[in-house]
Structure formats: C-alpha cells, structure tokens
Amino acid sequence: MIRLDKFLADSGVGTRTDVKKRIREGRITVNDAVAKKPDLKVDPEQDQILFDHRPVIYEKYSYYLFHKPAGCVTARCDRLNRTVMDFFPESMRKEFAPVGRLDKDTEGLLLITNDGELTHRLLSPAYHVKKTYFVQVDQKIPDTTAGQFAEGVDIGDEKRTLPADLKILGDREAELTISEGRFHQVKRMFASVGCKVTYLKRISMGTLTLGTLEKATYRKLTEQELASLKKEAENKQSSGV
C-alpha cells in the first residue's frame, strides 16, 4: 500500500503540491469514487486510479537519459553548486539519483534512476560497462597514444588502467572508450601522455547513446533501450579482464 499523493507524484502527475491540489479539485478517482484525502492508502496493483478520467500507470522504477551541462555537480544536493537533480521535479529529488559521476566541467550522458540494483551493476568493476567520451586536448595527441591506451597506462594508481579503445579524430580530438570509472580517469590517462583535457563529453554508456538530446534536458528511456541496458549489465560480468 502507498499514499495516494506519493503514488500520483511517482507516476508523473505532478509534485506533491500539484497532486494535492488536483485531489482538492476532485480530479482524482479511486475505484470510481472521488478521492478526498492525499494520505489515502492505495494498492497500485489492485486499485483503479484515474486522473481526469484517464488511468494513472504506476512504475516502481523509472529511468531517464539526461544531457548534463557543464557547471553543475553530479549529486542529489549540494550547498554551494547547482546539481544535476535540480533539473528534475522536486518530487523526484529524494528517491532518484545519478548513476556514476561526471565532473563539474564535463558534459554529456547521465542516467538518472531509482533502481538501485541496476545502478550497482552499471557501476560495479565486475561488470565493465563501457563508456565513450569525446575529448579535446591542448596539443597534438602523440601517434603512440592509441597503442599505449590499448595496453593500459599508469595513472598513479596501484594498477594500470584496463585496455581502452582510442579513436583519434584530429590532432587534438579523439573518442575514448573505457570500461572503468576511476577518479578523473580520462583526464589522467591523457595527462600520462602529456596532454591536458580542455573539453570532455560522455556520448555513450553501455548500449545507451546521447544522440541529439539537447543539453540540460532529459527523456525517459524507451522500452528497447532499457531492455538492452539491463541485458548488457547482466552479461558484462567478467572474471579477470
């Protein structure tokens, strides 16, 4: 059982404030009876709940693709900086969280969800979910860099990085695909070959791609995208790669 106002907010009808207003206006019915109290307990699997005579579909978990802009931090809340969750309705900010992190100055694909199990799988080192970044650096990328990254490089940690795929697009531009998520990993990898990253954008994670999604906007994952992502997360577990 769940409170009616929480059910409606979680289903995208609006914020808690919005749905309480709609309940007062008599626009919500539960099993053909007009709902009068926001704290009414409902069973999403048994009760028929309508908003303006249209069924409200409850989703236990939701998944959003967000195009993170530079200048905000990847966190639920922060006293000093705007966060990625500030771009979402207030009703989502307590239960939803970003999957992994992007630096404050980094842009690109970020998955936002309330599915803790999938989050764990996508972030676990055991699963090696690939992430691809578009990178610009301050000088010509050495010709040997792709070979070095393919073998793994020393970035100051106890272990060298796992093999990574580098596609050089121009003297100072490249796409880098890694299967780890170490602290400032992309920047440190390029620093190991004498280059400073001046612009960084994540363009894919696993089977998800940023595509043409505009900066600072988000959308729900399609059923196909979600199925592919879950399948990859389940199949990526590796032993000793």
UniProtKB/TrEMBL annotation:
Report the EC code(s) recorded for this entry. 5.4.99.-
**What keywords is this UniProt entry annotated with?**
Isomerase, RNA-binding
* All residue ranges annotated as the RNA-binding S4 domain in the record: 2-62
Q: Identify one Gene Ontology CC term for this UniProt entry.
A: cytosol
Q: Per its UniProt record, what SMART domains does this chain match?
A: S4 (SM00363)
Q: Name one GO molecular function term.
A: RNA binding
Checking InterPro entries in the record gives: PsdUridine_s_RsuA/RluB/E/F_cat (IPR042092), PsdUridine_synth_cat_dom_sf (IPR020103), PsdUridine_synth_RsuA/RluA (IPR006145), PsdUridine_synth_RsuA/RluB/E/F (IPR000748), PsdUridine_synth_RsuA/RluB_CS (IPR018496), RsuA_PseudoU_synthase (IPR050343), S4_RNA-bd (IPR002942), S4_RNA-bd_sf (IPR036986)
For this chain's UniProt record, which GO biological process terms are given?
A: enzyme-directed rRNA pseudouridine synthesis
Superkingdom classification of source? Bacteria
Q: Which family does it belong to?
A: Belongs to the pseudouridine synthase RsuA family.
- NCBIfam families registered for this protein in UniProt: pseudouridine synthase
Q: What is this protein called?
A: Pseudouridine synthase
